[in-house]
């Protein structure tokens, strides 16, 4: 997500300079949101990986139960804002599957009911619901680390109506997992996939990371083949990012870690594109591939600039041009019940919303319809963006067909440089 201008505290709805932080309820007053999705952040992890800049930690105080009671309260409050049913609920982290099974079940039940999906098992895309009547597509995703997917956890996920699991594999090479400070064994991935499938969860995403220090093109090819052997419905492939303020970033600065060459990283990305295309996966977003139509509905809400609610510490939400981030400390979030205190709030003025619409729309491989492009260019800032588009077209970074504008395939890895000029 691109960084957007943060309003000064004086300009924040409901927050005078120096005043206490507003709550989510306060900043949404008068916003008329139309929530299509909800994201819930579970911050617990068994270990902090040195490349990770998500809010997650090893909880020495065992606050899992307090976390769940607080989440249940927030779900009841948020349900009043929804025009249910929602299209998607995504539980991420952290490691949601680290919650003890009874607490995981309670969390999923609270989220499912607030989404308007009832107490029964929710229906997935293209399925029928428990009563046999047709249902709207509903995607209920939980992120998991492979070694946390026990038979009991897989059963809890299925019984709670989860119909999609996104698993952080990252690599199938022990030495590369070690370089990332991941603690699972490669063998735990097929085992977790089998346990999920035994419970009827077939929509499975595998996350992979390329450009890990010390990795070769052959390593990456083997990772892709190992992932394909498991026949996931979806694959996300990200180049390793050296996020500021992470231990990995500092290690790169001191020379303790050497990034791989840019040319090698580009070759890895191209290898992913050709290998996954040959295997029948459709490339639909810069870092995402799916089999058939099994795209991530939740991310499509983000990329479509839709409204989603944010549960949990550090989670970010979006409603009618207002983007907010909940307080990032678990203690602060636990104390602000049922509405989270807000750490940052951004009200996207018209120009910023236009820029964001370009940035999100062009991340999709199919790009944007020209009619939509024309609509956006008619907004303030249109002349500047039109010039940027003309320059990117002439340098070959963008390409235009009869009906669409998109990032040229060879420029996908450097798409940020184009997208920034359109913000
Ligand atoms: S398991 Fe995932 S969320 Fe937890 S520290 Fe590692 S990368 Fe971050």
Question: What would you note in describing this structure?
Answer:
By secondary structure, the protein is α/β, with parallel strands linked by helices. It folds into two domains: about 325 residues, pyruvate-formate lyase- activating enzyme (Alpha-Beta Horseshoe); about 70 residues, Arc Repressor Mutant, subunit A, CATH 1.10.10.920. It is about 35% helix and about 20% strand. The chain contains 15 helices and 15 strands. The strands form three sheets. Strands 7-8-6-5-4-3-2-1-9 form a nine-stranded mixed β-sheet, with helices on both faces. A three-stranded antiparallel β-sheet has the order 10-11-12, with no helix packed on it. A three-stranded antiparallel β-sheet has the order 13-15-14. Strand 10 and strand 11 form a beta hairpin. It starts with about 25 loop residues before the first helix and ends with a helix. Bound molecules: iron/sulfur cluster. The site of iron/sulfur cluster has 11 residues, from loops.
């Amino acid at each position: 997500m691109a960084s957007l201008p943060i309003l000064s505290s004086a300009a924040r709805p409901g927050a005078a300079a120096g005043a206490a932080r507003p709550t989510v309820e306060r900043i949404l007053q008068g916003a008329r949101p139309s929530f299509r999705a909800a994201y819930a952040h579970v911050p617990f992890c068994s270990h902090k990986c040195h490349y990770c800049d998500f809010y997650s930690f090893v909880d020495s105080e065992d606050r899992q139960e307090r976390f769940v009671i607080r989440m249940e309260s927030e779900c009841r409050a948020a349900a009043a804002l929804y025009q249910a049913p929602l299209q998607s609920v995504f539980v991420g982290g952290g490691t949601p599957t680290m919650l003890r099974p009874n607490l995981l079940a309670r969390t999923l039940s609270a989220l499912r009911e607030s989404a308007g999906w009832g107490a029964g098992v929710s229906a997935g895309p293209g399925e029928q619901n428990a009563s046999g009547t047709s249902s709207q597509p509903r995607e209920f995703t939980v992120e998991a680390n492979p070694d946390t997917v026990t038979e009991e956890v897989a059963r809890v996920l299925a019984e709670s109506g989860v119909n999609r699991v996104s698993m952080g594999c990252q690599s199938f090479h022990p030495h590369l997992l070690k370089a990332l400070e991941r603690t699972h064994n490669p063998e735990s991935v097929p085992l977790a996939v089998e346990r999920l499938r035994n419970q009827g969860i077939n929509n499975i995403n595998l996350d992979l990371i390329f450009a890990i220090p010390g990795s070769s093109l052959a390593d990456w090819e083997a990772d892709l083949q190992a992932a394909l052997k498991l026949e996931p419905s979806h694959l996300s492939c990200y180049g390793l990012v050296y996020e500021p303020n992470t231990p990995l970033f500092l290690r790169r600065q001191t020379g303790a870690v050497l990034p791989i060459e840019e040319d090698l990283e580009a070759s890895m990305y191209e290898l992913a594109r050709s290998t996954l295309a040959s295997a029948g996966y459709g490339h639909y977003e810069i870092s995402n591939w799916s089999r058939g139509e099994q795209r991530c509905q939740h991310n499509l809400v983000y990329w479509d600039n839709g409204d989603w609610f944010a549960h949990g510490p550090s989670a970010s939400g979006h409603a009618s041009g207002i983007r907010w981030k909940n307080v990032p400390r678990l203690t602060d979030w636990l104390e602000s019940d049922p509405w989270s205190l807000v750490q940052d709030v951004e009200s996207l003025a018209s120009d910023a919303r236009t820029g964001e619409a370009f940035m999100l729309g062009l991340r999709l491989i199919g790009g944007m319809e020209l009619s939509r492009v024309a609509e956006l260019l008619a907004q303030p800032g249109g002349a500047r963006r039109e010039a940027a588009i003309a320059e990117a077209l002439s340098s070959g970074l963008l390409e235009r067909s009869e009906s669409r504008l998109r990032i040229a395939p060879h420029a996908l890895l450097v798409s940020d440089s184009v997208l920034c000029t359109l913000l």
